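INTERNAL AUDIT FORM
Audit reference: QA-55
Scope: verify that the stored structure record matches its stored sequence.
Auditor: D.O.
Record contents follow.
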Amino acid sequence: MPDSLPAMNNVSSTIANLAKSTELAVSNETTVLSVDQLNHQIRQLIEGELSLVWVQGEISNFKAHTSGHFYFSLKDSKSQISAVMFRGFNSRLKFKPVDGLEVIVRGKVTVYEPRGNYQIVCETIEPVGAGALQKAFEQLKEKLKGEGLFEASKKRPMPALPRHVAIVTSPTGAAIRDMLNVLSRRNKSVQITVVPTIVQGEAAAPLICEALNKAFRLPNVDVVIVGRGGGSIEDLWAFNDEKLARLIAGSPIPVISAVGHEIDFTIADFVADLRAPTPSAAAELVAKNAADLGNRLLSMERLLKISMSKVLRGLEQQLKGWSARLTDPKRKLQDLILRNDELFSRLSQAVFSYFEHRRMALQILQGRLVSPQQVVLRKQQQLKLAETRLGAFLQRSMEKKKSQLEKWMSVLQSLSPLKVVERGYSVTTKDSLLIKTTKQLKIGDLVEVKLMQGSIQAEVKKLS
């Protein structure tokens, strides 16, 4: 951070030098700069005056390019500046920058000549308030929690009496000695397989993953303990690796995380099926004390005897009650015979009553039954009566229709043109069309004049 102060103090002198160079270029008529030359000189001036700077600001417009480079802006309440972090530098970051994150960056101020933009080329980024490791821890924790890897429903139950325990840890640390002491003291019959690995440093996480896969392939392993002793967040960082977390979450065998002391938490603790506060506590969880098991077995034996005695006494009382209610089979048979005779008598009576009822109903129907011959004679009489009524109705209808026809014929005849002709009038037609006005004719037309008797043909000589 102190390096940035003298650099910032030189900004004004840099601008002044830039102004002087511009004035010289303008005053000297023989020196005309191209845009590329101007941007190049500006870059040289800025990079010459500003070496490394430390800048604090808020990240905005963050974009992780497919090339692996980070592009973003740093801003405060009044200004902003473009920034870039190339892949070679950002690959060492322990966290992922996001919009809105307050950070301190260290880098060099330079000019991107093709566009004339100045920007900071960042070499390091540190979150403000929380360290990079803590920020990376929180980001990975939220990511895996969102995927449901911490849910209790996904936790595998611990075996009650594991026979084979695999321990993934450093073979030279104090943690393995503590776990072996606890296991041998509490239950010497438990088989223990130590899968060695380093548990600290940048190469630790992949080696722990490799050791875990070896433990999963061991035959008849009931539970796996993975862990180490206490230390700083840097010392425990291998257990915050995302690949290790996913490997533990997808384990086919129950996994106990025993990393650090009781106050230490890692991502492995959240994805494991069970978290032990210390490695020794993990050993106590998997290895039950032999003496405790013996006492528990004796207690269970006593409870079993008491329960069996209660059950046997209850069955004995139940058997006595059944014996008291048990009757002689001969008496039971005699009761069934009597019951059978009674039911047979009731069935015979019911059958007789049913047939008697049907016989009486048949007699009633026979009394109501009419002779088919009588029915035919009655229908014939009804048919003759209907024929007589139909003939009379047709006769009346024909006379009525005849009277109406004569009436309408008389009316029609009175309206006939022939009746008019009979009274001394004539009817003139041309081509079978009735002539009503002279407008229908012209001089020379031939017309037919119908008289009361006969008709004549005439030629039109005059129209008036």
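Auditor finding: record pair retrieved intact. The longest strand covers residues 52-64.
Action required: none
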